[in-house]
Amino acid sequence: MTLHFRSIEEVGTERIHRLLDLTEHMAAVGRRPNPKVPALRGKTVCNLFFEDSTRTRMSFDLAAKRLSADTMTLAVSSSSVNKGESLRDTVETLDAMGVDAFVVRHRTSGVPWQVASWTPAAVVNAGDGWHAHPTQALLDAYTIRHRRGLTNDFSGIRVAIVGDIRHSRVARSTTEILQLLGAEVIHVAPRTLLPPTSDVATTTHLDDVISEVDVLYMLRMQRERMGAGIVPDGGEYSRRFALDERRAAALRSDALLMHPGPMNRGVEMMVDPTELQQSTILDQVTNGIAARMAVLFDLLGSGGIEE
Amino acid sequence: MMNKEAVLFAGGLVVDESGERHFDVRVRDGLVVETGSDLAAGDEERVDISGCILAPGFVDLHTHLREPGMPEAETIETGSRAAALGGYTAVVAMPNTDPTQDCVEVVEFVSKRGREIGLCDVRPSGSITIGRAGAQLTPFADLAAVGVHLFTDDGSGVQDEGLMRRALEYAGELGVVLAQHCEVASLTAGAVMHEGECCSHLGLPGWPSLAEELMVHRDIELSRLTGSPVHLLHLSTARSVELVRGAKADGLPVTAEATPHHISLTDERLSSFDTRYKVNPPLRTMADIEAVKAGLLDGTIDAIATDHAPHPSAAKDRPLDEAPPGMLGLETALGVARAHLDCSWQHLIGALSWRPARIAGLSDRHGRPVSEGEPANLVVIDPDPDWQVDPSALASRSRNTPYIGIDLKSRVRHTMFEGRMVVRDGIATA
């Protein structure tokens, strides 16, 4: 059985603990004067991006390069694939070139599972539909662990995830990994932005929880959801759910302010987070490379990561 | 076309609407000519069916044959062969072909092609609206005159209540039946699977049960208002079954069908993201399965109908939102129904044969008693085998069966259509 990295649930607790430890190691590698190691020399990683995502794609690309893997990138909108060959044709063609791992991003849930059924290569989910974004979850968990000086036991850590939970693969995967590590998660959103059913605690009142949480995790709110019968237009979302100056002042000084990027300034973010000492937003970007190195090394690595 | 055969079915258990009896059955010139104990073979072929059940052939109210228009998915020929192998002697061909079965020419093409192939009775349905666009009624009387009995826009429901009311009023005097695919479209935009825990977890857009139930309720009330019969296609939710039970208790002319997949597979199958499990209406929960089964057992749901919906691999090998809904059903219906319904053979065969034959207006030739002078549209069932489907061995042109690796029970051994053995020992003869 080929090992994949497609969802937190599928990966399981034991491997997540190992990957968090490995991420720490990779972060240390990243701080070396020469952050490149030969661990994946001779391996080929193919980035298969069917949805625009410059930052995640570049993060994966850099992670693979730091491990000395060869990389190929196919970045196309799904529609242009549809004009000619099918998704399956694309995967089988690339597979025939000799690929060890596919890193897959698609606007539809489940595509990484479909890809895995068409190739013997390992599959890394770089975000599928509203479903999962497990490398984001890993880097988020690592960021909290690192900033708070935790082990892999997050008991007592309270996290509020705010915004469009329903349409967010980040919310699903990050909630899963944090619960798996023992943290307490609450979702803050209007009913229309929550999944049809959920066993996660929810509230519609951000102000009730903001001063208590260890982590305030703000999600990106797509402007096109407003005025489309999901939430009202005209700034109501921001008044109820955005981080503004008053709410920023209510955050505990030792709390973490997180965001998966890209931010929608003026929608969910009414303050400049770079001015808040609680913000971990750029740390998340940095840690993303280490987390993705850990995932690729876990799947493909056999050589060492020493200098 | 094959010659009509002379056959003596010996040693089987005859099951039809009048009951069960250990009779031999003699068939000649397309008719059952004699039944009784220990019949002596004359010059006809003696076929030993000891341990098997002989029954009137099955009637599928809901088959997508895909011709004209989609020969890469299925043709009338491959679909007829799949039907015969499944024990069917008649199928109602759904109208969502290309072009739509909304006019006499297309309907006659399908009927004629079915007769040329001659593996089962192919009865085209007609669409309720031109092009299934939900706006303009098709010529019901002209279509009825060329043999259409069931009208449906299957694939989508008739959204406009006013139009559906007028369609029922107009259809009433003609003696035809309108069949509804119950789905309120504004509640299912973009939906891929049942709305519930599983879709929430998988991040897939949900198809709420309510979208079906609202239209079931609406059409029951429109039947009450107009007095015209309504047939409800592929019921999938517990509440839908409850609504139909109430309608029948009120004596309304409402009938209903359920598919093999809605009594055997839950929405959790989609956790594999395998597009073979995408179907419309979607696979639902275990509670829904139990309610649909209870409806079939107490007669609230009249018939098992396959919703046989072939799609080529190229169409199913797409992301879940783009892959078309639907799954194969004809060759596995008996095996699934037998494995999942705990009832008598007579009740089960009734749901596959004479009850759907009446709804389809085919009870002059199908679902008949097995007795002298009746048309020889028959199936012989071996009740014992436990088996699993081999997709590569299916007669259908497509391979989208959801039953790979799932235990099925009982197999069709022979199918006789109009006195000809179209399936012999589980193999199509033509």
CATH superfamily of the largest domain in chain A: Aspartate/ornithine carbamoyltransferase
User: Main sheet of chain B?
Assistant: 7 strands, mixed
List unreliable stretches of 5+ residues of chain A.
none
- For the record, the CATH architecture of the largest domain in chain B stands as Alpha-Beta Barrel
> How many strand elements of chain A?
9
In spatial order, strands of the major sheet of chain A run 7-6-5-8-9
| Helix and strand sequence of chain A | HEHEHHEHEHEHEEHEHHEH
Strand content of chain B: 15-25%
Number of helices of chain A: 11
Rg of chain A, alpha carbons = 19 Å
* Subunit arrangement of the protein: heterodimer
How many strand segments of chain B? 21
The largest pleated sheet of chain A is described as: 5 strands, parallel
- CATH class (first level) name of the largest domain in chain B: Alpha Beta
pLDDT averaged residue by residue of chain A: 94
CATH homologous superfamily assignment of the largest domain in chain B = Metal-dependent hydrolases
Number of domains of chain B: 2
What's the rounded overall pLDDT mean of chain B?
Answer: 97
Explain how this protein is built.
- Chain A has 11 helices and 9 strands.
- By secondary structure, chain A is an alpha/beta fold.
- Chain A folds into 2 domains: 8-131 and 286-300, Rossmann fold, CATH 3.40.50.1370; 135-281, 3-Layer(aba) Sandwich (Rossmann fold).
- In chain A, helix 6 (134-148) crosses helix 11.
- Chain A starts with 7 loop residues before the first helix and ends in a 7-residue tail after the last helix.
- The mean pLDDT of chain A is 94.
- Chain B folds into 2 domains: 7-54 and 372-428, Urease, subunit C, domain 1, CATH 2.30.40; 55-359, TIM Barrel (Alpha-Beta Barrel), CATH 3.20.20.140.
- The longest helix of chain B has 18 residues, at 209-226.
- The mean pLDDT of chain B is 97.
- Chains A and B meet through helix 5 of A and helix 5 of B.
